[in-house]
Amino acid sequence: MPEATATPARSHWTDAWLAWRDRLQASPRFRLWAQGFPPTRWVARRRAAQVFDLMAGFVYSQVLQACVQLRVFDLLLAEGPQTTEALARRLQLPPEAAERLLRAGEALGLLQVRPGTRFGLGPLGAPLAGNAGLAAMVEHHAALYRDLADPVALLRGDAGRGQLAGYWPYAGTDTPQALGRDGVARYSALMAASQPLVAEQLLQAYPLHRHRRLLDVGGGDGAFACLAAAHAPQLRVTVFDLPGVVAGAPARFERAGLAARCEAVGGDFFEDALPPRADLVTLLRVVHDHDDARVLRLLRAVRRALLPGGRLLLAEPLADTPGAERMGHAYFGFYLWAMGRGEPRTEARLRELLAQAGFTDVRRLPTRVPLQASVILAKTLN
Ligand SMILES: C[S@@+](CC[C@H](N)C(=O)[O-])C[C@H]1O[C@@H](n2cnc3c(N)ncnc32)[C@H](O)[C@@H]1O
């Protein structure tokens, strides 16, 4: 391996103070003292619990995975609290194994012990019950979990093409148009199931009633197109995505009774012209999948597709979102690395890219749960 040429690190006036603080916090004697000293005791306990949670988080995720795969939350919502024995029979688990899972779920707030030694939904399990989008998200993490088994190999690129890269095949090819329906079916179903989580944030943040023609770029097989058309009865909607993906859209439009106002166009948004004359373009969970050069190409194509003064709505989880900091660089940073393309971006970085692509009046619109999606609105100059 060629030796990396290291740039000498610049020093800063805080270095000496921070080095002293680091040495202090790393010292076992100081830790013992801080754990016993009343004013610092609570900080020491909280830090210890935070470190433990980082260490054990992968176990918690797999407890959740087991509950979702076994449909524990759906069952408890439909049938109410149940004893361990009854649940063991329903889940087809040995009673001791069911007890282990249920107690773990209780400790994580997913389940709750109810009177009569029965288990019911806990405060974190209840929102998952009956939520097909969240369940699909949790289940597809099985692929990422396998890729993360050796995180250093993943970072060094020694692990080869991983499971997640296979899940999102467009991220590993320069000819995504060639992907057939089979290759895109799994992720398209996941996106359709989880799209309401994004749409509910976006439609609350930005009413669509002032627009006439919406183009949903990278819009999958039309899940958002349907939600938007149902939300705004005056709107005509075109969904643009890879041919293998949009092939499923007409049937969705028919089922929703929206075929008269919704249409689907297949193509590669890096190579093909986008359908013109939209007064609103949406890019939902699309930009973070691609590197800066591709994003610029896409944004310029979007600008060309918009009528003068048209708007772009970009919705995706942003890095450095207050209150959801871990979601950006930690979760999406590793997720997209395993996928093989893309990166989480801050609002500031997206603003730069939008300005370079010829957009103006860029605003972040408040959303109720920015963890699910942040929304950025921009206007075309021409
Ligand atoms: C993460 S999914 C988001 C789907 C949808 N917007 C949603 O939020 O449910 C990204 C979408 O971009 C599409 N896509 C990726 N590369 C593309 C390309 N070069 N041309 C057209 N669509 C592409 C994918 O097929 C996929 O449907």
UniProtKB/TrEMBL annotation:
<dbReference type="Pfam" id="PF00891">
    <property type="entry name" value="Methyltransf_2"/>
</dbReference>
<dbReference type="Pfam" id="PF08100">
    <property type="entry name" value="Dimerisation"/>
</dbReference>
<feature type="domain" description="O-methyltransferase dimerisation">
    <location>
        <begin position="53"/>
        <end position="124"/>
    </location>
</feature>
<dbReference type="InterPro" id="IPR036388">
    <property type="entry name" value="WH-like_DNA-bd_sf"/>
</dbReference>
<dbReference type="InterPro" id="IPR001077">
    <property type="entry name" value="COMT_C"/>
</dbReference>
<dbReference type="InterPro" id="IPR012967">
    <property type="entry name" value="COMT_dimerisation"/>
</dbReference>
<dbReference type="InterPro" id="IPR016461">
    <property type="entry name" value="COMT-like"/>
</dbReference>
<feature type="domain" description="O-methyltransferase C-terminal">
    <location>
        <begin position="145"/>
        <end position="359"/>
    </location>
</feature>
<protein>
    <submittedName>
        <fullName>Acetylserotonin O-methyltransferase</fullName>
    </submittedName>
</protein>
<dbReference type="InterPro" id="IPR029063">
    <property type="entry name" value="SAM-dependent_MTases_sf"/>
</dbReference>
<keyword id="KW-0808">Transferase</keyword>
<keyword id="KW-0489">Methyltransferase</keyword>
<dbReference type="InterPro" id="IPR036390">
    <property type="entry name" value="WH_DNA-bd_sf"/>
</dbReference>
<keyword id="KW-0949">S-adenosyl-L-methionine</keyword>
